[in-house]
TrEMBL record:
Protein name as annotated: ABM domain-containing protein
Gene3D superfamilies named in the record: 3.30.70.100
PROSITE patterns listed in its UniProt record: ABM
ABM domain: residues covered: 9-100
């Protein structure tokens, strides 16, 4: 991973609800969005459901820098959310995380 210490960090997180738990997971994620938006260093935090794939969710988030993202991930409330989230979703949280590195063409 490139050093993003002083640059914004974009995260895409994709998760799939367990069969029959789609609405429950959507409600859970909806409740978790606002507190994350209020975390120090958050630029953008949006939850989405994939069109045509009920129960498949993507969270798009941008942070001022890696430090802000790490603070968010290590917030006490996040540690409380994880067990409940694992009850609702297939697989692991880590499987769905993609950290994107910004780049621009040379001028």
């Amino acid at each position: 991973m490139n050093d993003t210490k002083d640059r914004y960090v974009t995260v895409l997180w994709e998760a799939r609800a367990k069969t029959g738990r789609e609405a429950e997971m959507k409600a859970f994620m909806t409740a978790a969005v606002t507190p994350s938006r209020n975390d120090l260093g958050n630029i953008d935090y949006e939850a989405h459901e994939v069109e045509g794939q009920p129960g498949t969710f993507i969270i798009y988030e941008r942070w001022e820098n890696r430090e802000a993202l790490d603070r968010h991930l290590n917030a006490p409330r996040m540690h409380k959310l994880v067990p409940r989230l694992l009850e609702l979703m297939e697989g692991s949280i880590e499987e769905g995380i993609r950290i994107l590195q910004p780049f621009r063409p040379a001028q």
